[in-house]
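To assess whether the prediction recovers the assembly geometry, we first specified each molecular entity separately, as shown.
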Amino acid sequence: MTADRVETGDQPGGPPPRARGSVMRDVARLAGVSHQTVSRVLNDHPNVRPETRDRVLAAMRALNYRRNSAARTLVTRKSRTLGLIAYETTLFGPASTLYGLEQAARSAGYFVSVASVRSLDRESVLDAVDRLCEQSVEGIVAIAPQSSVGTALAQVPTGLAVVGVGGGGEHVPTVCIDNATGAAMATRHLLALGHTTVQHIAGPPDWPEARDRIDGWREALHSAGAPVPAPRPGNWSARAGYEQGRLLAADPTVTAVFCGNDQIALGALRALHEAGRRVPDEVSVVGFDDVPESGYFLPPLTTVRQDFAELGRRSLDLLIEQLESGIRTDRRVSLTPRFVPRASSGAAPT
Amino acid sequence: MTADRVETGDQPGGPPPRARGSVMRDVARLAGVSHQTVSRVLNDHPNVRPETRDRVLAAMRALNYRRNSAARTLVTRKSRTLGLIAYETTLFGPASTLYGLEQAARSAGYFVSVASVRSLDRESVLDAVDRLCEQSVEGIVAIAPQSSVGTALAQVPTGLAVVGVGGGGEHVPTVCIDNATGAAMATRHLLALGHTTVQHIAGPPDWPEARDRIDGWREALHSAGAPVPAPRPGNWSARAGYEQGRLLAADPTVTAVFCGNDQIALGALRALHEAGRRVPDEVSVVGFDDVPESGYFLPPLTTVRQDFAELGRRSLDLLIEQLESGIRTDRRVSLTPRFVPRASSGAAPT
DNA sequence: CCTGTCATGGTTACCGTTCACACGCGTGGC
DNA sequence: GCCACGCGTGTGAACGGTAACCATGACAGG
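The predicted structure of the complete assembly is given in tokenized form:
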């Protein structure tokens, strides 16, 4: 009955949309085999005669069969779906990571289901985890690298693989950029240009990334014997960079500023410009991230590049590693960022 | 057997992670009812005595039961999952739309599964559709507003709701920003400032958004009786803005530039700056999008704001409307953008 | 007292896969 | 000639829900 719904018309006017609702039995009937054989073909089992396989494949094509993943999930208890907890995905970094992850997941044969959270309190995160669990995801990647998330994630049902992206969790496998090293690169670059010290406008204090960058900056200053000013508190926005930048611009001893990210740097750049302090002649500015626009700031921004897409790919690797081994590691993968010199940093004024 | 896996320990050291694997039967057994009654409670059916309902709820809590959505999907043939075809999600616009959509979907009780595509050729889009179909999504939202996508989407299986976001498709319900109006706003603003005409650095020609903005710009010039120069071809990047900006900067008659988006404007700003043409004194620049950083460009960018999150929400509305009515509309929802004047535009030089 | 209706809850079939197992058949070793 | 074995294939039972249908008891109306 259902089988004759074939009619994948080659008639003009465009083929009709593929028919919903052909199932294994239909394919089996058309190919003259049992549903089990169809299943075998589908799952690349050995012990199917090539000729039979071809017949089945032809039938599948004719009926435009696609397998019902719900049924499959039900019996195998594997959904081939990954959950993604996303925070602030409108930012370039998280958005890119999401992209990298999805691409990687796709080629590994996984689907990705997202749950964005509006805030990172325990409540929201646990709620997101719940939603994902209900879809019986096999693993969860959290692009939400706040410390609080780490602890929330540790609570996730056993048998569920978890990976954090970014500075995050204590007891959760994590993949992150080596923020401290990146920050140190930027700082050393500025010191090498003759600046006696480097100011830092930091990201939000509850982001481990921000803290690690502070650490790297501080350490670089310290080991060069340079004075260590207090880091300026901020968040990831241009506005924060602007506000802190105004304060820094008013201080004539300031000649070098390392910013927690490129947006902050943009704000700082504007503040310096408004205060009449030329960049890089009077003040050098370095950012972090290397967003696509930073090469077009005024002046083009010296920064530290993170490979966000790679971050996504690696987090998938880590997840799959757990899925396959069945054990929850607490490995930490760290990616080294790359320093990108441009025009916003220069020799210290004499 | 399974029921005594309760032990959702209140013991110190943190409760053990919720137990996987309690199913309806377990709950039913514990509550002393049949699994059907549990189902009724779960689905808010009437005709369950309050006392029974409470017993069931208590049992569910005790066992930390969560229903298996695969089983549910299998029998109801409704997955409560939406598919999202995403393109260039690292850009601010698409990323924000994704966010808006996900939030809306969540509160409407839907899950969101994403399929990002690397390119928008028919092949890739159809492949993404396939992947989503396999997950038996109930509807698809395509944040991938190229013309080609529209036609590909029209091919989607019947019985599957589809919505395009952005300029896109012919025969597909669409929600978009009124790009022509936005472009006209920007253009009229510049004309009102006394500029004799307005140049336009456009987005990629295969994006309907870009075309609509060209149309709006052209129409505004035309109806004001201003000369209509050829639009400069570009893409959405700062680089394109920079390259076209250099050409424009070399032409002393150019006093006003309307850019296809804020990134382009950023590039143009830099090109003008390098050429020594002051903004806004000598040349006015207007962007489109109002990305969070544009208020911190040098100078702060006059632009046109799109409410991307609203775009996401509306596309969900449209999808749900189709899902509930069961008919595929080809309604087109158009959102009016908002003009945001800042410092990059000013009176024409005399 | 019989019947109809309503509230409540149980029975059972079914959704579309996969898995465990059985089956028939050719082949090779003894 | 018998048995074991591998190959290719079919059969039936899960998986965990929901929906349609049935059973029971209480209660009202005739």
